[in-house]
Write a structure and sequence with these properties.
The protein is about 35% helix and about 15% strand. It contains 12 helices and 12 strands. Strands 1-6-5-4-2-3 form a 6-stranded mixed sheet, sandwiched between helices. A 6-stranded mixed sheet has the order 8-7-9-10-11-12, sandwiched between helices. Helix 1 crosses helix 2 and helix 1 packs across helix 3.
Amino acid sequence: MTGHMRSAGSTHGLTHTTPDSAGAPTVTIRDVARVAGVSYQTVSRVINGRASVADATRHRVEDAIGSLGFRPNRAARELAGKAARSLTILTGDTSLYGAASTLRGIEEAARTASFTVAVSVLDRHAVPDGNELRTRLARPGEPVVVIAFDAPGVRALRLLPADTPVVAAIECPSGSEPVSTRSQAWLDDRIAANRATRHLLGLGHRTVHYLSLPSSTAQVAQRTLGWLDALRAAGAPEPPVVEGGWTPRSGYLAARELVATPSVTAVLCGNDDVAAGVMRAAREAGRRIPGDLSVAGFDDVPVAAFLAPALTTVRLDFEGLGRTCFGLLHRLLDPAAPAPDPCDEPTLIVRESTGPHRGTSG
């Protein structure tokens, strides 16, 4: 599997975390049940004031809740009573492939679990505050999934009230970033970029140039680190990173000078849209693809296989990431909910836009 969900730890691919506001692991209803010596369903009945619990059992559960510092949130209590069956998705963009596919995965998983979904698009240029974000929720305490691939999503994640049940789909974090107090899931961009770069180096290219996406954080993005990992492992030169933006136009504008340079023979692009712009710039510069220049992208958007030449890319399981995010949120609200399935591994899809290096680079 490839995504990451941070909670009790991480696996190679999908990692999640569910710490409390102090960074320590959250106490769950199952922890209370274990200490009290009862089922989690009994704990749920005590929390929700059901009358079908013996006094002695109720006292044991209440003692366990007190000793563990368990704090059942309002949304979880309502869900147990079948009142809270909705969630809000906050995203900075619904047009980009990764965000749109993640959103689709969330919606499909939520619909299967009989949740209704509201989508609220964040203003890319405004800085929201906590009060403004509250107005975007259908009701106070509404569960939220934040697609935090960009700066608006990251800001929203930081500003949501502490008592709001939240899970976030994020850009793969670096080890130097502080542990978040929110449950998070991400795809392993570092491994994906490493595989694409090694593919290009394996074709005989002296080095690989990289057009990056804008990072959602101040840290070096994991795709950039994966690219560097492969270059350093091969002893290849490390060209400066060129920011390629998100769109075909931004990739085209960023790459015009780069691809006109004969010594540049391989370019890795932050997404397939940027790669399409690079391919256009290369044609205008008289560079043949892949004869003079190999180009690779990320995401495997539907049109990638139909470009001329067809684009080599890394397929990422964004819909699986969305399903994972909903699964984490569902379990946050109801510990008896099924565990989320793992995402698919990043898959290198080799097509016509990459080929052996045929000349001498300077």
